[in-house]
Design brief:
Blueprint lengths: L3 E6 L7 E6 L1 H29 L1
Antiparallel strand pairs: 1-2
Length: 53
């Protein structure tokens, strides 16, 4: 889906290893998800404080 890319790296102790990295699209999506998470965490915190009052 274009969020990750990978490359194989030969290993001296076993089979080749696959390393993943975020693409630019993946970085953008991660940033959006992080922002959404921060907003949700803030809303839950505010609602918990309101319930204690």
């Amino acid at each position: 889906n274009g969020l990750l890319s990978y490359n194989w790296v030969e290993s001296t102790s076993g089979p080749p290893r696959k390393y993943y990295t975020l693409t630019e699209v993946g970085k953008d999506i991660l940033s959006q998800l992080d922002q959404t998470w921060q907003e949700l965490a803030y809303a839950v915190g505010v609602s918990q404080e309101g319930a204690k009052s």
